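note to self: dont lose this again. the chain is below, predicted strucutre after it. 217 aa total, dont forget to put it in the shared folder this time
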Amino acid sequence: MECPVRLLRQEGWMLEQIENTLNELKKSEKRNFIQSVDLIVSLKGIDLKKPESKFSEDLVLPHGRGEDAVVVVFSDNLNDLGCNILTSSDIQRIASNKKEAKRMAKDTDFFLSEASLMPLIGRLLGQILAPRGKMPKIISDEAEKMVENYKKSVRIVVKNAPVIQCIVGKESMETRKIAENVESVLKFLETKLPKGRQNIGKVLLKLTMSKPVRVVL
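---
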């Protein structure tokens, strides 16, 4: 898990351009709910037939998502983590009801687990969680901090198509904070892509119900 770019303020022009786009976006038709702000990045010069071009990484946004990601912890020993905790008996119960298991997988952003429960999870829930890219990460000694980080995280995936899309905030957040979240994702992509910035094509921002607006970088 990474939270890059905080020290990379020499490229303030990028933040300014992102902020300008966000201000334009916020002029879109108002809805009767608080919309999410989504980042869409098309990639170029990427050969997805090569394994090294694909990745799935969890990234901590500097200012969070505007509302916490849904985190579930599998544990027989931990409690009071500020999230839903499921024990081994819960795992067995949920696994016996495929509809409930699929609903849990759909409604949960990130799963964490004690190492000792991973074999049970793999056997009973692996067929549901693995295809969705939601197999649990092993929880560390600093369980509470790890949960708090994941609440502010997004998953960046390059797999079947040369494009990534992720939430970077809510329209109710300060424009600068959303812009710094966007910058964080772009800087992260530069570190992960084979040719860095050269592999980044169009950068778009959109609200839940709006048309995408291009960020001119």
